[in-house]
Amino acid sequence: MQYSLLLPVLSLLIGADAAETVLGAYIFHRHGDRTPKSLPPANLTTLGYDEVYTSGQYYRSRYLTGSSKIRGINKDIVKLSQLSVTSPVDNVLQSSAVGFLQGLYPPVGETMSTQSLANGSDVQAPMNGYQLIPVNIVSSGTGSEDNGWLQDASGCQNAKLSSNAYFSSAEYNNLLSSTKDLYKSLVPVVNGTFDASDVTFKNAYVVYDLINVAEIHNSSIPSSSVLTPSTLSQIRTLADAHEFGLAYNASDDMRAMPGMQLAGEILKYMNSTITSGTAGSSANKFGIQFGAYASFLSFFGLAGLPKANVDFTGVPDYASSMVFELFTTKDVPTGTFPTTSDLQVRFLFHNGTASNSSEPTAYPLFGGSETAIPWTTFSNSLSKFAVKTTEDWCTKCGNTTGTCAAYAPANNNPSAPNGNGNRNAGGSHMSAAVGGVIGAFVTLAVVLGGLAAFMLLAGFRLVSKQTLAGGRKTPGSEVVEAKA
Predict the structure, then answer these.
(1) Under DSSP, is residue 355 helix (H, G, I), strand (E, B) or coil?
(2) What is the SS3 assignment for 53?
(3) Angle between helices 257-278 and 375-383 (to 10 degrees)
(4) How many whole angstroms separate alpha carbon 187 and alpha carbon 207?
(5) Assign residue 338 a region: left if phi > 0, alpha if psi is -120 to 50, beta otherwise?
């Protein structure tokens, strides 16, 4: 994804408006450089570690120590109530979050990390005052970087069905057919990992991903003469088209579920920033979430960002970040918080590692032209597609098992009070499930009654196997315990 600044007039000089007061921020961040998806488990590389650490340092200079400092946030020693850091369960993403935090809140040194105890002794924190910051878990995106297909990590049935529809689209089939020769030429480069039959547009991203990692890290690549600048550009463009087609569709937004979930998480956190500020609390100022490129792509589509820049249809580079700033241009006396009518939101994006020499750029959201929009406009626009609750997610996804069982439609949930779907609200009728149990017992009673009558008339009696065996247990008389 190469973000040419097609809208230079929209570029924002970071912290240029001295009248602004930043009240909170939410960052969604991609992981750093990693090993290829096609050779799991993927791991964060040393280069990737450096990328996210550098990004953490930049956002420290922006929001903790610079002119755009978030009002009231602790600069040096982290106050955990002010900060929320989340990631899916994933080696690459969780490690990236930790590396970023080391740049955001670095070790505080011997003086600030020493604690005096009641007995008069002093204890110094390990590693020169290294700060321990928990990375909390979000439900979406688990194992993202070990999955070759972005929807494998979503868990959403209807999102998978929607994405699968891309494989029957005219766009997909045209590219599958027109690129056969290109991908055939790549077989000697990747045949140590992929079968020749798998090197097609169907696997555009994982093929590109393997080659891209090799280009970064390998001193030699098989048949490298094939990988001309033109070819590398083509396979990158094709990978972008493939993944955007799977992540977003204007006429079927179900495949953008990762973006819907992200929108819900952004709204929830930024609302908590406003609520806590209004209540006079200093909590919930800075939210940071690490996630996979699928969430970027689907959010880009949902938020109308391709209208601002066509490059928003491409996979963002490693360590990319998008930021939502909550700010006001009104005077904010100490101890007060602006009314919602005085709050604004700005969206910024940086492709690749942000730094003081390469800062994020502001872009307009939702097809508009302004880079700063009122909070109410932002909140209402995001709410149109945001998934805010587990019940909403389960309903949209059509999932009915596990956590979603509690929200399954009544006719799909036999254990629900209205499970048969035929309950008469005006009367006291038993359900089919209860009626079935009673009916079974009635039938059993009739059978046992008939058997007893037959035995009485015929002179039969019940004798245990132990008695027949002369008091010894026979194998058939033993009870077998089934263990779950």
Answers:
(1) strand
(2) helix
(3) 140
(4) 10
(5) beta
Q: pLDDT tens, 332-377?
A: 898 899 999 999 999 999 999 999 999 999 999 999 999 999 999 9
Residue-wise over 132-171: b if at least 16 C-beta within 10 A, else e? ebebeebebbbbbbbbebbbebbbbbbbbebbebbeeeee
DSSP-assigned states of every residue in 254-271: GGGHHHHHHHHHHHHHHH
How large is the C-alpha radius of gyration of the chain? 30
Which pair of structure tokens corresponds to residue 428? 């006291």
Long-range residue pairs from 190-198, CB within 8 A, at least 24 positions apart, any chain:
191/222, 192/222, 193/36, 193/38, 193/39, 194/38
Report CA 182 to chain centroid distance, whole Å: 33
How far apart CA 452 and CA 360 sit, in angstroms, is 86
Q: In the structure, what pLDDT confidence band is assigned to residue 150 with cuts at 50, 70 and 90?
A: low
Tokens 């263990």 label which residue?
A: 483
pLDDT in tens, 392-448: 999 999 999 988 999 988 755 544 444 333 333 333 333 333 344 334 433 444 444
Tens of pLDDT, residues 298-310: 999 999 999 999 9
Cα 294 to Cα 287: distance, rounded to the nearest angstrom: 19
Cα-Cα-Cα-Cα dihedral of 255, 149, 299, 320, to 10°? 180
Tokens coding 386? 């945001």
Q: Which residues contact 165 (CB under 8 A, 6 or more apart)?
A: 249, 252, 255
| DSSP conformation letters of 202-233 | GGHHHHHHHHHHHHHH-S--TTGGG--HHHHH
Q: What is the pTM of this model?
A: 0.82
What is the C-alpha separation between 6 and 285, in angstroms, rounded? 32
Distance CA(155)–CA(399), nearest Å, equals 9
Q: The tokens 């689209």 sit on which residue?
A: 169
Which tens digit of pLDDT belongs to each residue from 258-282?
999 999 999 999 999 999 999 999 8
d(CA 17, CA 328): 11
C-alpha distances in Å from residue 196, one per residue of 178, 227, 242, 271? 17, 17, 19, 51
CB within 8 A of 361, min separation 6: which ones?
Answer: 3, 5, 10, 11, 12, 348, 349, 350
Gap between the terminal Cα atoms of the chain: 51
Inter-CA distances, 223 with 149, 183, 196, 215, Å: 26, 13, 15, 12
Q: How many CB atoms lie within 10 A of CB 338?
A: 21
**What long-range pairs does 387-394 form, CB within 8 A, spacing at least 24?**
387/257, 387/260, 387/261, 387/263, 387/264, 388/264, 388/267, 388/268, 389/264, 392/264, 393/156, 393/257, 393/261
Strand 372-374 with 344-350, pairing = antiparallel
